[in-house]
Amino acid sequence: MKTSVSLFVLAVGLLALGVYRAVTAVDAQPAVQCFLVQERDRLIQLAHEGVDDAFKEHVKGLFAVWVRDPAEQPKRAMTGMSIGLSAYHRARANIRAWEPPIC
């Protein structure tokens, strides 16, 4: 019984700490950062590379599932590919639309 009460008190404490941190984080939003042109261009390049790498991993995962579980394939793989392509397209559009302030 003592263990369950202790766990309950610990859980309530952690919940209270999480709420406190969430509330204070909203009030302490960092100012918008500016970037040198070279920094901005490098960040954009890295973002594109990251999205490309993530898409490649997604495709690898789809194929790995297909190999392990051929049930209802290629329909499942095609659904996964459609979802991945949609996310890839949206991510790249968001990267292109990013306009951070220049210092």
Q: Report the span from N to C terminus.
A: 60 Å
Evaluate the radius of gyration. Answer: 22 Å
Strand content: under 5%
Determine the structural class based on helices, strands and strand pairing.
Answer: mainly alpha
Q: Helix segment count?
A: 3
Order of helices and strands: HHH
Summarize this structure briefly.
The chain has about 100 residues and is mainly α.
Question: Could you list some keywords that capture this structure?
Answer:
about 100 residues, mainly alpha
Q: Can you tell me about this structure?
A:
Helices cover 79% and strands 0% of the residues. With 103 residues, it is mostly helical. The chain folds into two domains: 1-30; 31-103, no CATH class. The longest helix has 32 residues, at 37-68. Mean pLDDT is 82; it is low at 1-17.
Summarize the SSE layout with pairings.
Elements: H1 2-27, H2 37-68, H3 75-97
Helix pairs in contact: 2-3
